[in-house]
Design the sequence.
């Protein structure tokens, strides 16, 4: 066996830590603030490398990245969004429907770049280490890649918006995806100079972020909320 290399792995310096947490907390889903300026290939290469550095079940790396610039393809995607969004709107009642109609939920045409991140459900063959008892772990791995890219994009001044309001069959047809490949994330990317300081859905009165304490429990489901030790 080859010797395995180890390198020092202490905590980052304070400014480095701050930068990581800043990217996490300032990352936003962007729909309306895209500038038309193209994204340099060097920047895109860094974003894709960040995505490709994600953890994956059994190191299967089930993702692919479809870089979409063609206006015709994006036009078809936009039409597919409109169709699904018309259906989605009808699923809400009364005031929620009116509020939903007023929300901007995609930036497909405005963003200079679209990116579809897919999951190849056959990647790594029929038996993948770690995927033996939960076959969805390939999808989870792909979502890790999306999040890596989203955070790296914040550091690069690139906004990212995730659009999921599509009929699966429409995305597959337009992008020519084979049956075993799942479109996990359809993303719109572009430079931004401003971002909402809280989720846009919060700013527009659709939903609020829950307190962290509400989302934790200890030992068993329903157990007491976890709290940091005093002092
Ligand atoms: C899986 C997933 C799908 C999403 N789909 C959409 C979408 O179709 N349209 C949209 O406007 N935002 C979409 N979003 C963005 C969320 O609305 C957004 O992440 C959430 O409101 C929190 O805001 P923030 O990302 O700015 O913190 C999606 C986010 C995720 C993680």
Sequence:
């Amino acid at each position: 066996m080859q010797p395995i290399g180890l390198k020092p792995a202490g905590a980052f310096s304070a400014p480095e830590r701050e930068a990581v947490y800043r990217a996490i907390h300032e990352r936003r889903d962007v729909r309306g603030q895209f500038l038309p300026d193209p994204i340099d290939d060097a920047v895109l290469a860094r974003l894709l490398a960040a995505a490709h550095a994600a953890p994956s079940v059994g190191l299967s790396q089930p993702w692919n990245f479809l870089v979409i610039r063609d206006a015709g393809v994006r036009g078809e995607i936009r039409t597919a969004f409109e169709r699904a969004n018309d259906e989605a709107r009808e699923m809400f009642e009364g005031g929620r429907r009116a509020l939903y109609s007023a929300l901007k939920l995609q930036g497909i045409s405005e963003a200079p770049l679209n990116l579809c991140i897919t999951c190849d459900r056959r990647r790594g063959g029929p038996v993948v280490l770690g995927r033996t008892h939960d076959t969805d772990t390939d999808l989870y791995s792909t979502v890790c890649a999306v999040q890596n890219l989203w955070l790296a994009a914040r550091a690069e001044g690139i906004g990212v918006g995730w659009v999921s309001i599509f009929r699966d069959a429409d995305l597959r047809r337009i992008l020519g995806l084979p049956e075993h490949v799942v479109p996990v994330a359809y993303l719109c990317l572009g430079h931004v100079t401003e971002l909402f300081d809280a989720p846009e859905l919060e700013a527009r009165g659709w939903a609020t972020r829950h307190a962290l304490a509400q989302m934790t429990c200890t030992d068993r489901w329903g157990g007491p909320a976890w709290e940091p030790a005093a002092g």
About this structure: Residues 28-29, 31, 105-106, 162-165, 199, 201 surround flavin mononucleotide (CB under 6 Å). The chain has seven helices and four strands. The mean pLDDT is 96.
